[in-house]
Write a structure and sequence with these properties.
The structure holds two protein chains of two kinds. Chain A is built from eight helices and eight strands. Chain A is α/β, with parallel strands linked by helices. In chain A, strand 1, helix 2 and strand 2 form a beta-alpha-beta unit. In chain A, helix 1 crosses helix 2, helix 1 packs parallel to helix 7 and helix 3 packs parallel to helix 5. The N and C termini of chain A lie far apart (45 Å). The mean pLDDT of chain A is 94. Chain B has a six-stranded parallel β-sheet, sandwiched between helices. In chain B, helix 1 crosses helix 2. The longest helix of chain B is centred in the middle third of the chain and has 13 residues. Chain B is globular and about 40 Å long. The two termini of chain B are 19 Å apart. Classes of the chains: A alpha/beta, B alpha/beta. At the A-B interface, helix 3, helix 5 and helix 8 of A face strand 2, helix 3 and helix 5 of B.
Chain lengths: 201, 168
């Protein structure tokens, strides 16, 4: 059993840099604290975000992957988010999209609400869970250089692939602002341009 | 009134006639004869989900990628999918059509008179969420299937179809 208190951990920044260097025309679905950092590192017409439905990033990405088999889809998930929809591992493995990369940022806490610990924080291992569910490939990294050395081979192989990235918790508490009445929700603004870009190709 | 059973082949024809490419589902006992046909169908793809809230997000992703999905679930799954119905289908303005089986409904009663909370609360919940619904209480109601897709596009949001009694 994994002991998460002993694993090496990288910064979220270093983990996302490895992915940003490989960004081409993939659709990327981000969520929670990694989402804002990703959008700054890799601004792109094909970025989507799971905001306001925690846990839904993996299956939103699955739908895009199944509709666009010729294009790679990356989901940058959170550990707490995936915990909320653990069944999605079985759904994704069953649908078996070869173009699907599932990144799980494993910092062990619910960072946006004040860094409370995850249930089973000390031992939960999402790579083992994904392997048990039937993902084609799984891997875990706590060192950015090792991740950088291994990612190209993982990207070249058939998915679905889950990569668990152990990162250090950072203080990214997020307090939601009130939404003005009549506002268009972020998701409704975000996806039509992505759909339009995909339809053109 | 007495709800009439809809033959599976007629419901499948209506689904096909609406241009559905993918059925995103969590199995519904009530519609099992349709599921049997769908799983053998070579044109319509079935995507099996662990939970109904996943099915909402998968459907939204399919729409982003240019597909025409339909969700097929049981009434209990409607209750399980509420957060994504709100956060994805409603907030995201996704034209998702849901086919929901009213398992265990007394065919002699209006759903709101039913003894089962799963049946009785279905339409009130949909009304609360501002999701229009249409009851399929027999083959003569199948015109609602294609119309629901038009309605969903016009509203930029979800529309529900309630399968009133077990398909045959």
């Amino acid at each position: 059993m994994t002991n998460n208190s002993e694993v090496q951990r990288m910064s979220l920044d270093a983990a996302l840099d490895v992915l940003a260097r490989r960004r081409e025309d993939q659709v990327v679905v981000g969520t929670m604290t990694a989402n804002g950092a990703w959008r700054q590192k890799s601004p792109h017409d094909l970025n989507l975000a799971c905001i306001g439905f925690m846990g839904g990033a993996s299956t939103l990405g699955l739908g895009v992957a199944l509709s666009q088999p010729g294009r790679d889809v990356w989901v940058i998930d959170g550990d707490g988010s995936l915990m909320m929809q653990l069944g999605s591992l079985g759904t994704i493995a069953g649908a078996a999209p070869s173009n699907f990369l599932h990144i799980v940022i494993h910092n062990g806490v619910y960072e946006t609400s004040g860094s409370q610990p995850l249930p089973s924080q000390q031992q939960v291992d999402f790579a083992q869970m994904a392997e048990g569910a039937g993902y084609a490939q799984t891997a875990s990294f706590g060192d950015a250089e090792e991740f950088d050395s291994a990612i190209d081979e993982l990207l070249a192989a058939e998915g679905p692939t889950l990569v668990q990235l152990y990162t250090r918790p950072e203080d990214r508490f997020y307090s939601a602002r009130p939404t003005p009445p009549g506002s268009t929700p972020a998701l409704a603004r975000m996806w039509p341009p992505v759909a339009e870009a995909l339809a053109k190709d | 009134m007495t709800a009439q059973s809809i033959p599976a082949d007629q419901l499948l024809s209506a689904i096909r006639g609406a241009g559905v490419q993918d059925v995103v589902l969590v199995p519904d006992t009530h519609q099992r004869t349709v599921l049997d046909l769908l799983m053998d169908d070579e044109e319509i793809r079935t995507i099996h989900c662990s939970t109904e809230d996943e099915a909402v997000a998968v459907s939204a992703g399919l729409i982003i990628g240019g597909r025409r999905p339909m969700m097929q679930i049981q009434h209990a799954g409607l209750y399980a999918s509420v957060n994504n119905l709100r956060g994805v289908a409603l907030d995201g303005h996704f034209p998702i059509v849901l086919l929901i089986g009213l398992l265990g409904r007394d065919a002699e009663l209006e759903p709101e008179q039913d003894g089962s909370s799963m049946v009785r609360l279905c339409r009130p919940l949909l009304e609360t969420l501002d999701i229009p619904s249409h009851l399929l209480d027999g083959p003569e109601d199948l015109h609602h299937v294609a119309e629901a897709f038009d309605e969903a596009q016009e509203r930029n949001g979800p529309v529900a179809l309630l399968v009133g009694t077990t398909t045959s």
